[in-house]
Give the backbone structure.
Amino acid sequence: PPPTRRTTACRAAPANDGGDPPSADVRDLGLTVADLELVLPTGAVELSAGGFESTSMDPRVDDAACRWSETPSECEVSLAIPGLRGQPAACLAIEFAVTTLSVTAFGRIVWSCILRGRVVPESAVFVVKENEERVPVIELSVRKANEALWGGFIESIGEKVFFDAYKPHIDEKLNAVLVY
């Protein structure tokens, strides 16, 4: 039979006075020890994860404007960046590099981030819509370069990304200027 998906929630009982470990009654699952010892065929189970992240550079702001879901081979993301409110959806585009994503408006970068992993930029597809609050919503999909779960989409955002990446070079140049 084809694999089926069943979600069951169970709550462990508190440890008893004798110090025995907690246990849960799972008889309703209809499993035996032999079932648990079976080797699953390749491709029978696909891992996935998902969640929300902030699109703000300010760590105090959690706008949850990045909704992401992932498998080991692909990411699907919906970005509704509040700072782009009022921008026409038709003027927005995305540009991927192997480890970065930039959102452009009229060809100028207006938001960028470093990704938690590497992607295949040419595999990216996207569509931009406008929600009821006039915030453009960018829905995108991109293939990962390495099969793994990232546990999120955004590593870091915006100007800080640029500053952190180039700070050692800026410090080096500044020190050289100060010495002369």
Summary: Residues 21 and 179 are 66 Å apart (CA to CA). The helical segments are 33-37, 158-179. The first strand starts at residue 49 and ends at 53. The two ends are 77 Å apart (CA to CA).
